[in-house]
Amino acid sequence: MTVTQPPHHGGQAEATSPPWAALPGAGAIAVSFEFFPPATAAGTTNLDVCVDLLTPLEPSFMSVTYGARGTDQGRTASTLRHLGERTDVPLAGHITCVGATRGEVQAVLDSYVEAGITRIVALRGDPPEGQTDGSVEGGYRSASDLVAGIRARADGARFDVSVAAYPEVHPRATSPQADLDSLKAKVDAGADRLITQFFYDNERFLRFRDQVESAGITVPLVPGIMPVLNFARVASFAARCGAVVPSWLGANLATLDDQPIVQPLVAAALAAAQCRDLAAHGVREFHFYTMNRAELPVAACHLLGVMPRTPSAIEGHHP
Question: Which contiguous run of DSSP H or E holds residue 287?
């Protein structure tokens, strides 16, 4: 049998770069990851796999959410303790003030400090079903009040405090300007970082970034990225949060929810494309809402150039 050799083109060297434009300033990108506290032993095992996959990416921190309306605080604290025994990545605990007195909030902060956790994601939280406010007598009425309460502690200066930002305006804000004023109040109270609600329209984020800068807000603005594990669920969640789902996202993913092999491939490519576009506009930090699944964030990070120093670190793991 005769083997035909491919044509040789004058001794040209093999391409050593991927066939897409290099990111300006590549190599300086930071990532962080968010989890929710698992409710079952199987969920804990799954979270462990996620953490093992994501730790080699050397994230700035990993955070653990509260449940809806501040529920499941106990699971949040126990999850943080569990992760602290599993990874050396800095951990952040979420805390909300809706439905809690100041004393209750401070007790949660005390428990975090006791566990060695001084990174906080401070949120007002959602009011209970049927209520529009949810504040209680003796509680913090807003996220800015909560941040001020953290900073007023004797050890308040040691906390690294992140707060939420809404590129498409908080659904309960009376106006975009009121929402921006609220954001500035959180920063003035002592917030170190803004982490946005997830979004899929990068132009809206970039316009929002301009507005934030024009308001004199200088702390880092970190985009929240949610790779699409299931389009129908994400579309429903986005409708509640006021996040726009562009038509191109549905065109690419709406028919793939029942195709478990193809869907993650397309979703990973879209998440990576979103991040690379933001990086091309100067974004250097990304916060991934993982939904306790690691494969899509790992893929997106890899295509951003954020990958384990040892490739074997992600082999053999199947979330």
Answer: strand 285-289
| CATH number of the domain within which 151 lies | 3.20.20.220
Give a yes or no: residue 6 inside a domain. no
What 8-state DSSP symbol labels residue 156?
A: G
* Domain annotation covers residue 230: yes
User: Which amino acid, one-letter code, is at 27?
Assistant: G
- pTM for the full model? 0.89
Output the DSSP codes for 51-113.
Answer: HHHHGGG--S-EEE---GGG--HHHHHHHHHHHHHH--S-EEEEEE-TT--HHHHHHHHHHHH
Tell me the pLDDT tens digit for each residue of 15-36: 666 666 666 655 589 999 999 9
Token pair listed for 254: 């709406």
Q: Single out the residue of 176, 151, 175 nearest to residue 163, CA to CA.
A: 151
CA Rg value for the chain: 21
Residue 12 burial (CB count, 10 A): 7
- Which residue is catalytic, options 14, 34, 104, 203? 34
Is residue 290 a part of any domain in this protein?
yes
Identify whether 34 is a catalytic site residue: yes
User: Looking at residue 138, what is its pLDDT?
Assistant: 82
Residue 16 lies in a domain: no
Q: Domain residues for 231?
A: 30-311
Nearest CA among 298, 199, 194 for reference residue 246: 199
Residue 194: helix, strand or coil by DSSP? strand
In the structure, what pLDDT confidence band is assigned to residue 137 with cuts at 50, 70 and 90? confident
Structural domain total, the chain = 1
**Tokens encoding 50:** 């996620």
